[in-house]
# Entry
Amino acid sequence: MAATVVRQHRVYAEMEIEREKVSEIETGKLIRQLRNDVNPLLADEHIVETGHEYTREISDGMYGNLWYRVFGYRVSFTAWRQVYNCRVRKVTAGIANIPARVEGWRYWETKHPMFGGRRLSDR
# Structure
C-alpha cells in the first residue's frame, strides 16, 4: 500500500505606488496645468509544493487501512463590545480550527474491508 499527500502554498504580494505630478505653465493671461499620473504595480508570486509518501506491506489475507491527519486544536471564541449606553452586546462567535505542527499517518489492518471507519458488512 502506498499513499501520498501533496500540498501547494501560494504566496502573493502586490504593491501599487501612486504618484501625481502637477506643473503649471503660464503664458500671458493663459495658465495651463499639466498632470502626470504614474501608477506602477509591482507583484511577486511564489508557489511552494511539499509532500511525503507512506508505504507499507499488507499482511496476507488482511485489508490495510491508512489514515492521514493534521493534528490541531479546535477553539471556540466570542467577541463582545460595550455600546454607548454601557450595555454589552455580542458581536460574533464561532469555532476556529488551528492546525498544529504535528501530522502523521495511522495504519491498521482488518480482516474485513472498511469504509469511513466502519466495516462494509455492518451496512
About this structure: Residues 8 and 49 are 4 Å apart (CA to CA). The chain has a mean pLDDT of 80. The chain is about 0% helix and 75% strand.
